[in-house]
Amino acid sequence: MKNCKRCRQNKPTSDFRPDPRYRGGFGSWCMGCHRARNSLWAKENRARLTVKSAEWRAANPEKAAEAARKSSRKLKEKRAEYSSLWTRANRDKRRASSAKRKAARLRATPQWANLERIAEFYAKVPSGHDVDHIVPLVSPIVCGLHCEANLQYLPSAENQSKRNFRWPDMPRIENAQRQERLFA
Ligand SMILES: [Zn+2]
Questions:
Q1: How far is ligand 1, taken at its centre, from the CA of residue 15, in Å?
Q2: Number of folded domains in the chain?
Q3: Do residues 116 and 83 both lie within one domain?
Q4: Which residues contact 60 (CB under 8 A, 6 or more apart)?
Q5: Are residues 127 and 163 in the same domain?
């Protein structure tokens, strides 16, 4: 056991940092006291820096405005850079999935489908909406058709959240969660 010089409590030596500069080979403050002191210091320092930078901004309004512009420009650049990296990384993925959708659409198009009316349906999609297949073309339990009767407009966000999980006369599924995993 060792007595902490700060909190004056007796604690096992494992609660003290080994420190060869001290007699006995351990620091005089327990770990808890070190932690408390560090977090207090960080808090005080943060408050002090906040006050200091507010004072500096008040004393140097033009420089402060310029600095703010610069940092917002930098942030914008960073975001643009990140988003272009993301786009590049995902372009191939998106190409592959759009090719897959196209192939599924071709396979699901019956000979009697009215291609003109389908094209018209796609051409007239209201803004903020997507064309959705009421019964999905690709799912483990059904294959909907790419025909005019199986098309509907859905608000874009809704279409994304639907993700082929549900349709009007969908067969009953005992374990819906398992089913959704299959679709995901
Ligand atoms: Zn202590």
A1: 9
A2: 3
A3: no
A4: none
A5: yes
Tens digits of per-residue pLDDT, 90-132? 887 888 888 888 888 888 899 899 999 999 999 999 998 889 8
Same domain, 141 and 154: yes
Query: How many whole angstroms from 123 Cα to the centroid of ligand 1?
Result: 74
Q: 46 C-alpha vs ligand 1 centroid, how far in Å? A: 24
- The angle, 0 to 180 degrees and rounded to 10, between the axes of the packed helices 31-59 and 61-107 is 110
Q: How many A from CA of 16 to the centre of ligand 1? A: 9
Identify whether residues 126 and 174 lie together within a single domain.
Answer: yes
Cα 40 to Cα 16, 33, 43, 47, 50, distances in angstroms: 19, 10, 5, 11, 15
Single pTM value for the model:
0.40
Domain with 87 in it: 60-107
Ligand 1 center–CA 48 separation, angstroms? 26
123 and 175 in a single domain? The answer is yes
Distance 6 CA to ligand 1 centre (A): 5
C-alpha of residue 10 to centroid of ligand 1, in Å: 8
From the CA of 50, how far away is ligand 1's center (Å)? 30
